[in-house]
């Protein structure tokens, strides 16, 4: 065994205290594992664990440093990859939640717009005319509702004019809901 040979052929300048320390730290395989574990887990400083080996042979210093470097960077790499993977999964979940919220939000607004349209459509024809729209704009409750969903009453008048492309004076419920959703938010430009 290499270690036994080194014990027998140890340099004469090793003091008894150093030999004792070397035997205590690395004299058996379990003691060696324990010393390496303590070095990694900062139970003992690397220099303290390395010093007895440096007194014995430079090969042990290289092996010790190689072990520490490989283990340390290996563990750091695994830990980093776990955090990165967790962050990626969290981002994906966040995207899914935001998409679901947007869909729910849009459905809710379309439902409210349908309710508004049914109040506008006083004759129950399924279409609103410009007279019904003008009456609607005078109703404070309905006008305030459009304001709460970021559609100004001036925008509603413009929307009615834009949706009534054939100048018939009528707009269907689908045209009304789609147009109001386009007016809502950032897409307020009809240039």
Your description of this structure?
The protein has 191 residues and is mostly helical. Helix content is 75%, strand content 3%. It contains nine helices and two strands. It has a two-stranded antiparallel sheet. The radius of gyration is 39 Å and the shape is rod-shaped. The chain starts with a helix and ends in an 8-residue tail after the last helix. The C terminus is likely disordered.
SS-derived structural category? mainly alpha
Order of helices and strands: HHHHHEHHHEH
Number of strands: 2
Terminal CA distance: 88 Å
Count up the helices: 9
What brief labels describe this structure?
two-stranded antiparallel sheet; 3% strand; single chain; 75% helix; 9 helices; mainly alpha; 191 residues; disordered C terminus
Helix-strand layout with pairing:
Elements: H1 2-8, H2 16-26, H3 29-40, H4 46-56, H5 58-120, E1 127-129, H6 130-138, H7 140-148, H8 153-163, E2 170-172, H9 173-183
Brief overview:
The protein has 9 helices and 2 strands; from the N terminus they run αααααβαααβα. It has helices at residues 2-8, 16-26, 29-40, 46-56, 58-120, 130-138, 140-148, 153-163, 173-183, and strands spanning 127-129, 170-172.
């Amino acid at each position: 065994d290499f270690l036994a040979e080194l014990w027998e052929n140890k340099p004469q300048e090793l003091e008894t205290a150093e030999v004792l320390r070397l035997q205590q730290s690395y004299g058996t395989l379990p003691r060696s594992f324990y010393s390496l574990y303590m070095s990694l887990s900062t139970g003992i400083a690397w220099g303290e664990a390395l010093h007895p080996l440096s007194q014995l042979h430079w090969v042990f210093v290289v092996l010790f440093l190689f072990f520490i470097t490989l283990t340390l960077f290996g563990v750091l790499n695994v830990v980093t990859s776990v955090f990165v993977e967790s962050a990626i999964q969290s981002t994906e979940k966040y995207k899914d939640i935001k998409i679901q919220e947007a869909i729910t939000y849009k459905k809710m607004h379309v439902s409210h717009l349908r309710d508004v349209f049914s109040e506008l459509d006083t004759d129950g024809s399924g279409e609103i005319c410009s007279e019904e729209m003008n009456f609607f704009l005078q109703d404070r409750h309905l006008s305030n509702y459009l304001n709460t969903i970021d559609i100004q009453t001036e925008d509603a008048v413009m929307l009615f004019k834009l949706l009534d492309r054939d100048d018939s004076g009528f707009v269907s419920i689908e045209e009304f809901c789609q147009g109001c959703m386009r007016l809502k938010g950032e897409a307020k430009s009809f240039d």
